[in-house]
Amino acid sequence: MFLNHDAAFTTFAPAINDTLPQHTATLSAQTKLETKRGWASGDDLIVGDRVSTMDGGFATITAITHPKRRAPLVQVPGGVLSTCSDVALPADSHIALSPPTRWSQVPVVSVPIKALSGWNGIRPTLFAGPDLATLHFEEEEMIYAQTGLLIHAFDANADSFFPTLSYGDTRALLALLDGKMPAPDAAAA
Predict the structure, then answer these.
(1) 186 vs 174, which has greater pLDDT?
(2) If you average pLDDT over residues 16-34, what whole number do you get?
(3) Rounded CA gap, 24 and 57, in Å?
(4) pLDDT at site 177
(5) What is the pLDDT of residues 53-70, one digit of tens each?
(6) Residue 174's CB: how many other CB atoms inside 10 A?
(7) Cα 162 vs. chain centroid, distance in angstroms?
(8) Which of 9, 177, 180, 185 is the most buried (most CB within 10 A)?
């Protein structure tokens, strides 16, 4: 008697919050970031935490979302890229890399972490990260992780303050850093 329902149920589309800032960085829950209250892992961060940035200040986390996807991870060993310990980041993350001054006048460029695979022990992992957190910021930021690694929080659909290299350009930069190709001739250009 109670289980016989003639009522119809409708499906609703989930509400999408378009007001979230689009300057984002996705990281694994174990990634440590420097905050005003000390070093905190990604899963301990809360909205309102302030994280250390490349410009010497602290940026406020305006929102934290958890992507529904499982992303392949790239493992950066401790000691590489100024990290204090091993860190795994989603393969589509961008980080800062310092180009040689003869190649570019900017202090850092933003590169896809997956393009660094095979360089200085950086390698893709065999598993996908189930516990990811996407941090949202009001402005584009380079945030410190694992002591010295800079993760780029940016809007992929807008112009970036930092030059953003493609996969191929990043591989060419790595070859230049390793001395496997000559520097571009700026005088001939």
Answers:
(1) 174
(2) 82
(3) 17
(4) 83
(5) 999 999 999 999 988 877
(6) 19
(7) 14
(8) 177
Class of domain 23-96+112-158: mainly beta
Q: Please, how many CA atoms are within 13 Å of residue 99, restricted to the half-sphere of its CB? A: 23
Q: Which two tokens stand for residue 114?
A: 């997956």
Q: What is the pLDDT at residue 133?
A: 92
What lies within 8 Å, CB to CB, of 57 at 6+ separation is none
- Residue carrying structure tokens 């040689």: 100
Q: For the chain, how big is the Rg over CA atoms in Å?
A: 20
pLDDT in tens, 26-51: 999 889 999 999 999 998 999 999 99
- Tokens 């990260």 locate to 129
